[in-house]
Amino acid sequence: MRLKSRNRSGTRSSISPLCGSGDSGQKDPEIYLKIAVMYPSRVKVIYIRTIGSRKRNRRLKTLQEEAAALGTEMQPEPGSD
C-alpha cells in the first residue's frame, strides 16, 4: 500500500492531493476509505487491484459508493491471483 503526495517539483508536500493504490487482498480499500474520511478534499482517487475472493471483491462496490459520497473515486483494477 502506498500513499503519494507530491507537488509539481516532485517533492513531498503537506497540501497536495493524495492518490492511493493497493489491493483487495487485505484491508487496503478500508484503510484508504478511512483516510478519505479524514481528508475528503485531499483524496481524489483510490486504485484497488482486485485479487482474492469474490466476496471481498463484491465488498468493493459498497466501498466505492461510500467513497463517491465523499467525492473520492475508488477505481477497481483487474489483478492476478
Short description:
With 81 residues, this protein is of the alpha/beta class. 33% of the residues lie in helices and 28% in strands.
Q: Average pLDDT value?
A: 80
Strand order of the largest sheet: 1-2-3-4
Q: Would you list the SSEs in sequence order as H and E?
A: EEHEHE
Kindly provide the name of the CATH class. Alpha Beta
Structural class: alpha/beta
Overall body shape: globular
**Strand portion:** 25-35%
Separation of termini?
17 Å
Secondary-structure arrangement, i.e. CATH architecture: 2-Layer Sandwich
Q: Report the oligomer.
A: single chain
Q: CATH H level: which superfamily?
A: MITD, C-terminal phospholipase D-like domain
Q: Main beta sheet, described?
A: 4 strands, mixed
Number of helices: 2
Q: Unreliable stretches, pLDDT < 50, 5 or more residues?
A: none
Give the tally of β-strands: 4
Give an account of the 3D structure.
The radius of gyration is 13 Å and the shape is globular. The protein has a single domain (2-6, 16-78), classed as Endonuclease, Chain A (2-Layer Sandwich), CATH 3.30.870.30. It starts with a strand and ends with a strand. The protein is built from two helices and four strands, in the order E-E-H-E-H-E. The protein has helices at residues 28-38, 54-69; strands at residues 2-4, 18-23, 43-50, 73-78. Strands 1-2-3-4 form a four-stranded mixed β-sheet, covered by helices on one side. The longest helix is centred in the last third of the chain and has 16 residues, at 54-69. Helix 1 runs parallel beside helix 2 (54-69). Helices cover 33% and strands 28% of the residues. The mean pLDDT is 80. With 81 residues, the chain is α/β, with parallel strands linked by helices.
